[in-house]
From TrEMBL:
InterPro entries: CENP-X. It comes from Galeopterus variegatus (Malayan flying lemur). It comes from the Eukaryota. This is Centromere protein X. CDD domains: HFD_CENP-X (cd22921). Signal peptide: none annotated. Keywords: DNA damage, DNA repair, DNA-binding, Nucleus. Belongs to the CENP-X/MHF2 family. It is found in: Nucleus. Heterodimer with CENPX, sometimes called MHF; this interaction stabilizes both partners. MHF heterodimers can assemble to form tetrameric structures. MHF also coassemble with CENPT-CENPW heterodimers at centromeres to form the tetrameric CENP-T-W-S-X complex. Forms a discrete complex with FANCM and CENPX, called FANCM-MHF; this interaction, probably mediated by direct binding between CENPS and FANCM, leads to synergistic activation of double-stranded DNA binding and strongly stimulates FANCM-mediated DNA remodeling.
């Protein structure tokens, strides 16, 4: 699935928010990889949210559906098998 991605500058800023050492640097390749991982994560969240909305017979995906699928994405449950 092709589509919009995340700019490296944005990914860099997001990463720097969590660095404890202000001198930590990230290579361009690492930023590109993180941007791709973020794109995959967001796409998967959207797909799972849509499936959840469909299961609930809701026309639009809302925060409620995303909150229900988020633990599957960040908790290590329901991932690749």
């Amino acid at each position: 699935m092709e589509g919009a991605g995340f700019r490296k500058e944005l990914v860099g800023k997001l990463l720097r928010l969590h660095f404890q050492d202000s001198g930590t640097r990230v290579s361009g390749d690492a930023l590109q990889l993180m941007a791709e991982l973020l794109k995959i994560f967001v796409t998967e969240a959207a797909v799972r949210g849509a499936r959840q909305a469909q299961a609930e017979d809701v026309a639009l995906v809302g925060v409620d559906q995303l909150e229900k699928v988020l633990p599957q994405l960040v908790g290590g449950h329901g991932g690749c098998r």
